[in-house]
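dude i think i finally got it to work??
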Amino acid sequence: MSTQLMKIGELAKRAGVSHRTVHYYENRGLIFPVTREGGSHRMYEEEALLRLEKIAALKRLGLSLEEIADVIDLYFQSEDGMLDGKKRVIEMLQAQLKKVDDQIDELSNFRSDLIRNIRHMERLYEEAKPTKS
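look at this
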C-alpha cells in the first residue's frame, strides 16, 4: 500500500488554507512533512490533511491552538487515542464553560452595581436641582 505524497500547495488547497497557515502549523508542531523532495520541497502524507481538518474542527469548537496542540496527537495514535482526545476536548470545553459562567456572574454583579449607582446618582441629581417656586 503506497501513500500518495503531496506538495505544500496541494495540501493547502485541499485543506482550504494558505501556504502560510501550513507553515505556521508545521512550526507549531501540529503537522509534519514526511520528506523534502530533492532537499527543498516539503512533501506531506494524507495524515497531514486529516490533521488540518481536525485542527479546523477543533478551532470551530473554540479551542485555542495551544489547546489543540495538547490534544491533536491523541486523535492520530489509535482508536483509544481518539476517545482520549475526545474526552480531553470535553474537559477543555467544560473548563471554557466554567470561565464563561464565571464571567457572566461577574458581569451580572457589575450590571446590578451600575443600576444601583445610576439610581443613586439620579436621586442625588433630583435632590440637587433647584426647586421652582
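The chain has a mean pLDDT of 89.
im so relieved honestly
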